């Protein structure tokens, strides 16, 4: 299908249906375990019809990852260098936690890609992601140098937010089993607020 050509409403709908089906199948089975037949069945389309929109399993997977990486980077992009440091860092952690709550399949898809060695997004990780992390780490370092937050490793601070928030999507079944199926996100939000305030607020506050 020619991506440059104007798309009809049916074509737009079918692409969305295929991507949604692909997300479901890839997040459950990983890239290697997923098949076009599974995706077509999940989408309610014939395999030839699916191939009209996407020429391969790789094309569907790549389209999903491209959109996902943008979504995953948006919360870090939103960290405002001119804002209050504690408010900005806590806001970033809460935005990342909200992604785990609202997009658990996307989180697992991304985690599976990374666990496989990031074959499809390695270049983006080394360019777009690294550049953004370097930039925001410099913002954090400037806040530390100004005494606005306590000193710690800025890059590992970002890593800790990734791990503490994404855990709630990737290990959802385990968490809910321990909590007797209680919704974990209100407690997680309160805990992250407490944790990062105690870590980052200057002692004089």
TrEMBL record:
Q: Keyword DNA-binding: yes or no?
A: yes
Q: Which UniProt keywords apply?
A: DNA-binding
Q: Which residues bind DNA?
A: 35-54
Q: Taxonomically, which superkingdom?
A: Bacteria
Q: Per the database record, which ranges form the HTH tetR-type domain?
A: 12-72
Name used for this protein in its record: TetR family transcriptional regulator C-terminal domain-containing protein
């Amino acid at each position: 299908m020619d991506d440059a050509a104007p798309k009809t409403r049916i074509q737009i709908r079918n692409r969305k249906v295929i991507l949604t089906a692909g997300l479901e199948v890839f997040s459950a089975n990983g890239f290697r375990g997923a098949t076009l037949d599974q995706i077509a069945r999940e989408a309610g389309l014939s395999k030839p019809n699916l191939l009209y929109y996407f020429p391969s399993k790789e094309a569907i997977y790549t389209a999903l990852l491209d959109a996902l990486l943008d979504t995953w980077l948006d919360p870090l992009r939103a960290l405002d260098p001119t804002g209050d440091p504690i408010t900005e860092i806590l806001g970033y952690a809460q935005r990342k936690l909200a992604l785990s709550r609202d997009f658990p399949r996307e989180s697992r898809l991304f985690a599976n890609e990374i666990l496989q060695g990031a074959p499809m997004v390695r270049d983006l990780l080394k360019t777009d992601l690294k550049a953004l992390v370097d930039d925001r780490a410099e913002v954090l370092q400037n806040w530390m140098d100004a005494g606005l937050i306590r000193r710690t490793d800025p890059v590992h601070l970002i890593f800790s937010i990734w791990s503490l928030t994404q855990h709630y999507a990737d290990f959802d079944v385990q968490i809910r089993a321990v909590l007797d199926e209680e919704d974990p996100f209100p407690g997680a939000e309160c805990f992250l607020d407490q944790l990062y305030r105690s870590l980052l607020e200057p002692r004089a506050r």
